[in-house]
Amino acid sequence: MKYSLLILIATVLLQACGSKTKSSASETAAPVEGLVTLTDAQFKNAAIEMIKLQQQQISSILKLNGKIDVPPQNIVSISVPMGGYLKSTKLLPGLHVKKGEVIAVIEDQQYIQLQQDYLTAKAKLPFLENEYNRQKELNESKASSDKNFQQAEAEFRSQKVLISALAEKLKLAGIAISRLDESNITRSIQVYSPIDGYVSAVNVNIGKYVAPTDVLFELINPTDIHLALTVFEKDVNKLFIGQKLVTYTNNDPSNKHACEILLIGKDLNNERNTEVHCHFEAYDKTLIPGTYMNAEVEVKNKTAWVVPEDAVVRFENKHYVFVKKTDKQFELTEVQTGISEKGLTEILNGDALQQKEIVGKGAYTVLMSLKNKTED
């Protein structure tokens, strides 16, 4: 009797354990991950439209930054070769000047001395020339020694060299020798602007003595300003001479300026970048050297697999599309995205999705249904 009772209890316990194991297995069986099935009502409300990947020519936008620069030939440093005291000037930074305009007056006694030396040397020249001709005639008739003739010739030619040298010094100082005579000696010289442009720096004041090495003013000709962009090593091979781009300032991003690449640097600095110089197609007076600019360059076109931007959803920091399994069942499939432009997104792993139907319009609604399913 006792033996039968033990067999009965063991049988009951085994049946209970088997039932519990099946129940546990049933409870822990997870649903298919990333698979969502819509009801007829959900499918209709989502207004889902199916699409397929397409191959299309797309171009990427390379964003760069830099600043407006002026080529060395358009920056002029004004100095006075012989120095002197600044008598007058009206220049201020930002002031526009015209080529040939008087921008400063310098005075010094050395200018008086230089004019005196020139006029004195010039006055002595006729006497030395006559003496040279006289000694030449005497030497030809053997009435004078060769030494006297050679000395007269040397003095005459030396005087001509002296006059030429003094004349060049006067021209360098800005004194016109054509109007110079004993009644027209001046103690001051005028400094003229060599370009049309504007003043970028004034380094002197009235009454200050300036040496020949001092820079009085700096002038800039803005008609040939260019844009110097900083380009990193990985992007240099995307650019070429003659390539078009647009640029704009941070303060006025809607005002676009068209440019063209003129020069690409051939070496890299310690930060692994180089400079690319661009020319503005139209001169804008509001752009001044030193202004920081942003630039957008449309790089070479390429053929890529693309889908509408609405077809790509972001979930847990990754990008996905929904691939059709059955009429109303869709599978969440991870994709690697590339360039996005004009409402299209590049799919880098598009080869694996060829000929498959993908949710275009309504992908976000399907994602919400999947999230709700996961939460349930």
Explain the overall architecture.
This protein is α+β, with helices and mostly antiparallel strands and 376 residues long. Among the domains are: 35-58 and 303-375, conserved putative lor/sdh protein from methanococcus maripaludis s2 fold (Beta Barrel); 64-73 and 222-298, Elongation Factor Tu (Ef-tu), domain 3, CATH 2.40.30; 109-185. The protein has 6 helices and 24 strands. The chain has helices at 2-28, 40-46, 109-140, 146-173, 233-236, 363-375, and strands spanning 35-37, 50-51, 54-58, 61-69, 75-78, 84-88, 96-97, 102-107, 188-192, 197-202, 209-210, 217-220, 226-232, 244-248, 257-264, 273-280, 292-298, 302-308, 313-315, 318-326, 329-335, 337-341, 344-347, 358-359. A 6-stranded antiparallel beta barrel has the order 4-13-16-15-14-17. A 4-stranded antiparallel beta sheet has the order 1-21-20-19, covered by helices on one side. Strand 14 and strand 15 (257-264) form a beta hairpin. The longest helix is centred in the N-terminal third of the chain and has 32 residues, at 109-140. Mean pLDDT is 84; it is low at 1-10 and 19-32.
